Amino acid sequence: HTYTSLTMAPTGDEAALQQYLDKDLPKMMEEYDKLWEIPDDDDDPYKSKYAARKILEGALKTLKDKLEEAPTEGEVAWRGQEAYARFLLYLGKNYYYCEEVPTAEQFFNRALKRYLASPERLHPQCFISTQDCFNQLGMLWCQRQGHSQGMNYLRRAQIMFEKRPDSIRSDKVQNQRAADNYTLTMFYLAQAYAALNKPGLSARFCAETMSQQLDTNVSKDRSKEVKEKDPFDCKDWVRNCLSLSDFFVNEAMFWTAEYLLHSANVMCERSKEICGIEPTNLEELKAECARDTGNYYSTRLKFLKTCAQYPGHGEVVWRGERKPPPAEKEKSEGSKLSFRCAADSAKGKHEAVPDDIETEIAWDDIFPEVVHLEDEEADDNKLAEETIDKVSEDSEMEGDGGKKRAVGWLEYALNEKVRLPVHFSCLHHYVERRIKRANQGFILERPRPIAKDLVI
Fold it and tell me: What sign does the dihedral 365-114-101-174 (CA atoms) show?
């Protein structure tokens, strides 16, 4: 929503609020950031963070007073309400960093409710802060080992990004900020699924995190200042490819494993061209990639030998167990949001935390009241496997008005394709060409698939 400038100039209390927003708050945030960057001694590890917290708490109190005195309608009022919610979010992060988790949860909940209840919640600033709230609460619950509760927040962050409005998509800067938050969402989902003993989905979201991370860091829209502040760790990315390929080999998903290995090799060879940087100890990294690639082709031959020895059951023997049967769908009422937490009790409530607001939230497709976690999981399970289903590439890559999942089609031989749960758009052309070249002899001599749904 964009306000016009045709309204009358603010007067009185509204002018005071506008001056506070335009001049005083930016100075406070600059002072807060300087304190946050100060490294503290081990004997008082949060000294500068406590000092920074006082700035936020003072600003929040002043902002509350000015909002109560100023008119409740108009652009200035909306900016004041957004700033109030944003400072609640900042305080939540401060308390969480200082290991005061129950109080942090209170602040995150207060901020989230205000953002969801705002009529301007699709405004880029509100939208991105709402993403941040969901991520923070999801991470908080996963750290408590409450992964199912954390999933309720993380899935909502995923849904709102996939259905983000045109006002976000059309703005390069804001869309990049939303994508950065989405990368964190994928990372937390990968951790949550690992803890819930669902390694396939954990690997799936690890791969998507890496895809988002790579796309973000090769983007021309990323400023030099941002790149210097948050540099891309090319070596770490390559080693993550190597580790993830091991998982897919054990799952008999050989094309996915090979895709990851060749992606690592391409990154080593073209890191300067793709990322603008060359990792340290590059020759050592290349040697690791060559070693793992050699081990992969040796292992694939052993797998084919197993398939020949146990016709029709080679994959089962290889995995050492049968794939779990599809879980029977049970009717679920779904998961709703609760903005209350244990620390809201009379004894637990921190004095700095404002009272909860009583307001109605207008739920919709972007911000659903109920999330059926099992439905979202079922959709991701479909994309966590290799498949040769005759589904168009566009329908798999697009959904809800934009790119939905980092899955892609690999053409490993003439007129032969397989859909993988991994896709790196900026590397795909090079990787596909390498895989075709590396597998020419194998394609000519391979046996036909002898196990249902096995792609070799």
Answer: positive
Predicted TM-score (pTM) above 0.85: no
Task: Name the packing angle between helices 124-143 and 172-195 (round to 10°).
Answer: 20
Model pLDDT, residue 326: 55
Look at strands 408-413 and 416-420 and give their pairing.
antiparallel
**What are the backbone dihedrals phi and psi of residue 122, each rounded to the nearest 5 degrees, phi first?**
-90, -5
Residue with tokens 């802060």: 129
Read off the tokens for 102.
């129950």
Which pLDDT score, from 0 to 100, does residue 407 have? 67
Spell out the residues 6+ positions from residue 20 whose beta carbon is closer than 8 angstroms to its own.
Answer: 62, 63, 66
Contacts of 233 (CB under 8 A, 6+ apart): none
Write down the residue that tokens 């994508």 correspond to.
179
Q: Give pLDDT tens digits for 370-426.
A: 998 777 777 777 777 888 755 444 444 444 444 445 568 899 888 888 999 899 998
SS3 424: coil
Pull the structure tokens for residue 64.
């509350």
Radius of gyration of the chain (CA): 25
- ∠ Cα 373 115 132 (to 5°): 60
| C-alpha 10 chain-centroid distance | 40
CA dist., res. 399 & res. 365, Å (int)? 14
